[in-house]
Amino acid sequence: MRSIEEIEDKTSMARLDIKGIYGENDRITLERRREVSSAGFAFFVASPEDAVANKLLFGSEQDVKDAEGIYARQFENLDMAYLEKRCKKLGVYEEFLTMKKRVERRMKEVG
What we know:
This protein is of the alpha+beta class and 111 residues long. The chain has helices spanning 24-31, 48-58, 61-74, 80-90, 93-110, and strands at residues 4-9, 14-19, 34-38, 41-45. It has one domain (4-110). Helix 2 runs parallel beside helix 4 (80-90).
């Protein structure tokens, strides 16, 4: 069964999406994971590039908003060549270009 489990801490507004490994895309995401630490705990998360590409692939309104937020926060640190390659491979390159323009326009407006 291919599902995503969500864990949410309502006191901190932290939310984690947990997903299994079901195919090549999941394997690539796992291989490129990043270790992070918070509150004394170390855990792994998807790279920001894989998170953006996968959110666009999932495609719900919330996923697109999440992808926009990740892109905006990680903009200066993103491996753009890899992100574009992943979006092309996943068939979401046009969605990525649309999102990228929208986020970068907002970033310019805010200053």
